[in-house]
Write a structure and sequence with these properties.
about 190 residues, alpha+beta, 5-stranded mixed sheet
């Protein structure tokens, strides 16, 4: 198998003493995100271990995860930092806020995707191709096994420079709602 390791996803957070960073390890029998068969994301400060094996479900510290959109209040969405792509966040953030979303930027894609898997976030959005495939390889399997809905282009894991866009939502309905907002903001992620 191909082993994909991101030793510190959220290195800026770690350097500043912010708790939102993680170690991510994925195993794949191929070179694409959909070939990942096992994943672990460990958040040391939070002392949380997210795990998944394809077909076996997703877990947080041994407890089974199920992605779920909160049925009350505004949906909470975390957005990748647009500065990584040289984009101005105005149109995306404005669209999300005007649609009633609570917007966050936490700075660790793997952890944010796991937060969708655990129900802490309703969605995670990187509308610009700023994420490296290896940043989210383990987390995407965890989210998929927890029942989240995912949109990302087919991407090679082995190309460390490959950048991808990503949308992970707790439900298909929420994913479609966010896609419609991004289309209205004239921001689309690659497919």
């Amino acid at each position: 198998p191909l082993i994909v390791i991101d030793p510190v996803d959220g290195s800026y957070n770690a350097a500043r003493g912010l708790p939102f960073y993680a170690v991510s390890v994925a195993a794949a029998y191929g070179e694409h995100l959909e070939d990942v068969v096992a994943g672990v994301v460990y958040a040391p400060v939070l002392d949380e271990v997210y795990t998944a094996i394809r077909g076996g479900g997703a877990y947080l510290n041994g407890s089974k995860l199920r992605a779920r959109a909160m049925g009350y209040g505004e949906p909470v969405i975390s957005v990748a930092s647009p500065r990584l792509a040289g984009e101005k966040p105005g149109s995306v953030i404005r669209q999300l806020l005007s649609a009633g979303f609570k917007v966050r930027v936490l700075g660790s894609a793997s952890l944010e995707v796991c937060f969708v898997a655990s129900g802490r976030l309703d969605a995670y959005l990187a509308p610009w191709p700023v994420l490296r495939a290896f940043d989210v390889a383990a987390a995407l399997l965890i989210a998929r096994e927890a029942g989240a809905t995912i949109r990302t282009p087919k991407s090679a894991l082995g190309d460390l420079e490959a950048r991808v866009s990503l949308l992970v939502a707790a439900s298909p309905h929420l994913l479609k709602r966010i896609e419609a907002l991004m289309k209205h903001a004239h921001v689309g992620h690659e497919r």
